[in-house]
Amino acid sequence: MDIKEIQSLIKFVAKSGASEVKLETDDIKITIRTGSLGNGSSEPTYVHTMPMAQPAMQAAPVQAEQPKPVADSTAEADKKKAEDDKYITIKSPIIGTFYRKPSPDKPVFVEVGDTIGAGDVLCVIEAMKLFNDIESEVSGTIVKILVDDSSPVEFDQPLFLVDPS
């Protein structure tokens, strides 16, 4: 489905008076919600497209490799999870595009290792042409930045790991 088909679908839904339409195909999922404006016309207020996971391809058998012990990989995953559990995860409060800088010619808000306080701006998320400052609700040290600059983010998606100690 290309952008012109999506745009015509949005126009059709807006004219139909439906409040929400969901369309799911093999490769995309689209939800369109409409809301009424003060002048009585219906205008699309939310469009979300998400690529669906591609089915795994069956590969031809390859020469057998020595299998790695499952217990070791499980133990490593458990150890990493235990380390991450001591950190506070700062999550996205909105859907939009994540930016680490206030503008392209400015420095980033925070780096790994920076000490932050409650109320410090960590990033901005652009949603519908509005740039929203995302402020920290905790004090601590940035341990990990989980999202690449200029990447789309979902509601409640982890953005930063913070060590509160």
From TrEMBL:
<feature type="domain" description="Lipoyl-binding">
    <location>
        <begin position="87"/>
        <end position="163"/>
    </location>
</feature>
<dbReference type="InterPro" id="IPR011053">
    <property type="entry name" value="Single_hybrid_motif"/>
</dbReference>
<comment type="function">
    <text>This protein is a component of the acetyl coenzyme A carboxylase complex; first, biotin carboxylase catalyzes the carboxylation of the carrier protein and then the transcarboxylase transfers the carboxyl group to form malonyl-CoA.</text>
</comment>
<keyword id="KW-0276">Fatty acid metabolism</keyword>
<dbReference type="Pfam" id="PF00364">
    <property type="entry name" value="Biotin_lipoyl"/>
</dbReference>
<dbReference type="InterPro" id="IPR000089">
    <property type="entry name" value="Biotin_lipoyl"/>
</dbReference>
<feature type="compositionally biased region" description="Low complexity">
    <location>
        <begin position="57"/>
        <end position="74"/>
    </location>
</feature>
<keyword id="KW-0092">Biotin</keyword>
<keyword id="KW-0443">Lipid metabolism</keyword>
<comment type="pathway">
    <text>Lipid metabolism; fatty acid biosynthesis.</text>
</comment>
<protein>
    <recommendedName>
        <fullName>Biotin carboxyl carrier protein of acetyl-CoA carboxylase</fullName>
    </recommendedName>
</protein>
<keyword id="KW-0444">Lipid biosynthesis</keyword>
<keyword id="KW-0275">Fatty acid biosynthesis</keyword>
<dbReference type="InterPro" id="IPR001882">
    <property type="entry name" value="Biotin_BS"/>
</dbReference>
<dbReference type="InterPro" id="IPR001249">
    <property type="entry name" value="AcCoA_biotinCC"/>
</dbReference>
<dbReference type="InterPro" id="IPR050709">
    <property type="entry name" value="Biotin_Carboxyl_Carrier/Decarb"/>
</dbReference>
<feature type="region of interest" description="Disordered">
    <location>
        <begin position="57"/>
        <end position="82"/>
    </location>
</feature>
